[in-house]
Amino acid sequence: MKIVGFETNKGVRLGVVEGDSVIDLQAVDASVPGDLGEVLRRGQGDLTPLADLAKKAPASARLPLAGLKYALPVARPGKIICLGLNYLDHVKEGPQRDNIPKFISIFFRVLTSMVPHLQPLMRPVKSIQLDYEAEMVVIIGKRVKHLTMENATDCIAGYSCANEGSVREYQRHTTQWGMGKNFDRTGSIGPWMVTADELPRGGKGLKIMSRLNGNTMQSSNTDHFMFPVAESLVYLTEGMTLEPGDILLTGTPSGVGHARKPDPVWMKPGDVCEIEVEGVGVLRNPIEDEKV
Fold first, then answer.
1. What burial letters (b/e) apply to 137-170, b meaning 16+ CB within 10 Å?
2. Cα–Cα distances in Å, from 245 out to 37, 137, 182, 242?
3. What average pLDDT does this structure show over 140-152?
4. Virtual CA dihedral for 253, 258, 264, 270, nearest 10 degrees?
5. Residues 6 or more apart from 263 whose CB is under 8 A from it?
6. How far, in Å, CA of 78 to CA of 125, rounded?
7. How many angstroms separate the Cα of 90 from the Cα of each of 9, 158, 251?
8. Parallel/antiparallel/unpaired status of strands 114-115 and 187-195
9. By the 8 A CB rule, do 115 and 109 touch?
10. How far is CA 29 from the centre of its chain?
11. CA nearest 29: which of 71, 20, 19, 42?
12. pLDDT at 99
């Protein structure tokens, strides 16, 4: 099942994508929350009620997918957790090439740094070094702590795509990456969430790529994670409670713009960047200059 957030003049709503149409779940039952995180909290990760609503939706609840104004898959995630240096080939193309990590690198993004599918990413006034990063996204469905390898992936509600856009100049100012990772509207998540039952456990074996203006820049597979999803969830929950609607970005493979030879490739106004994860979909965003 593909669950999509979208905007209307009545606010953010949830839909189920079927072919080239979207079932507006609030048009079937007005009590359905517009935030997938809230649906997951209320149902302890059980999305069966949404599937049941979609099955009995009248024709009047169906909207064309074309022209939909997308919202983030989770409107207000409690946490946006990011894994850095999770593909060895990406480690080797960057400044940490001689320092292969023994543990997962973790940082966080704020909600204002993210936009949905088809909304423009903003190249900031302060730097031209806006880089693309293709990533698979894990969306948490249940409240969990102290997971084990046996049950870690049971908490996953589904998967999405991300462009974990980075302002490299600011990322390199210090050893802490937070500033370069959190400029307004420099990253994206979408276009929707595909429920976990439709993909391999832990999102294993999925092709992942980025394209800039139709040219393939990154091409890899989630089998190449240094720290696979289950291991990452176990590690994270040694210290923090994961909540329904929390989002985990799982790292990017090699081919990013800053490592391009002979010259770096940065996203610039007029470009279109696409992130594709096999079985999930294609996240697409145009690039614009920040307006001040």
1. bbbbbbebeebeeeebbbbbbbbbbbbbbbbbbb
2. 4, 12, 20, 9
3. 98
4. 80
5. none
6. 28
7. 42, 25, 9
8. parallel
9. no
10. 28
11. 42
12. 72
CB-facing half-sphere around the CA of 166: CA atoms within 13 A: 23
Judge contact between 285 and 259, C-beta under 8 A: no
Tell me: the pLDDT tens digits for 74-102? Answer: 999 999 999 998 988 888 887 777 778 89
Report which of 98, 116, 144, 106 is spatially closest to residue 246, judged by C-alpha positions. Answer: 144
Is the pLDDT at 4 greater than 90? The verdict is yes
Residue pair 170/179 in contact (Cβ under 8 Å)? The answer is: yes
Helices 36-43 and 48-55, axial angle in degrees (round to 10)? 110
> Mind listing the domains of the chain with CATH numbers?
2-64 (no CATH), 80-289 (3.90.850.10)
Cα dihedral 204, 247, 79, 101 in deg (nearest 10): 30
Distance CA 101, CA 222 (A): 18
Closest CA to 93 of 254, 209, 261: 254
Q: Give the separation between CA 276 and CA 74, rounded to whole angstroms.
A: 19
Question: What residues form DSSP beta bridges with 276?
Answer: 209, 282
Task: Name which of 139, 134, 166, 167 is nearest 274 in CA terms.
Answer: 134
Is there a contact between 272 and 285 (Cβ–Cβ < 8 Å)? yes
Q: What are phi and psi of 13, to 5 degrees?
A: -130, 170
What is the CB neighbour count within 10 angstroms for residue 61?
Answer: 20
**3-state SS class at 26:** helix
Kindly state the DSSP code that residue 82 receives in the 8-state scheme.
Answer: E
* Predicted pLDDT of residue 93: 80
Q: Which helix (H) or strand (E) holds 170?
A: helix 168-171
